[in-house]
Every structure is written in C-alpha cells, then in structure tokens.
Fold:
Amino acid sequence: MNISRGVYSALMYLLVPLFIWRLIRRDFNARDYWQRWGERFGYSDQPELMDSIWVHAVSVGEVQAAVPLIEYFLVENKASPVVVTTTTPTGSSRVKRLFGDRVHHVYAPYDLPDAVNRFLNRINPVR
Structure:
C-alpha cells in the first residue's frame, strides 16, 4: 500500500464515528437505513455469489440510467447473478421496484479497506 492510500485509509477509519452519526440522523427519515447498517461496513445477509456482475448506481437517476444495462446482463448472462449497489434509500427502492428478486441489491460499502474486502469477497464480481 502506498503512503497516500495509507493516509487516506487512516483518515477514513477516523471518520467512522461521523459515518455512524450520519446513519443515525438518516434513520429518522429512512428506517431502511437502520436495518441495513451492516451493508455499509461490508456485511450483508445476501448469499455469497460466484462470478457476479456488479453495477453501481448512486441513486434514482443512476438506477434509471442503468436499466438497459442491467436488463442486458439479466438476459445475456443468465449464469451470472447481477448485484446492484446504491447509496440512497430512494435508489434502493427503485432497484427493488424495477427488478424485484431478479437482482441482488446491497448498499455500497464505505471506502474502508476491510468493508470493501468483505463486500468483494461476498459478491465475487467478474465484471
């Protein structure tokens, strides 16, 4: 790991209490956050997936823009599960409304090495 990445990672770990404070504040408006905090730290109740296709869409607009791509992957790559990550409850709702159980949705983890590694080990993306 280079020095810049090490400093960045250390700073991110120092900011974790602020991340938690933000999650608590958001919980008052979006109860979905309360039940899914673990996903922000790389923990998920999703099954371990092999050779998945990962699409990240921050919120509703990006989810909407990614619909043709996700539909393509669902049709053309039936052997690979599709994982869609978002960062907002509205994005999560939109994914669930559009795709239901055809895709696996999780919140994108915070940019912490341990959280990202847990997430990547669980979804095992090939693309």
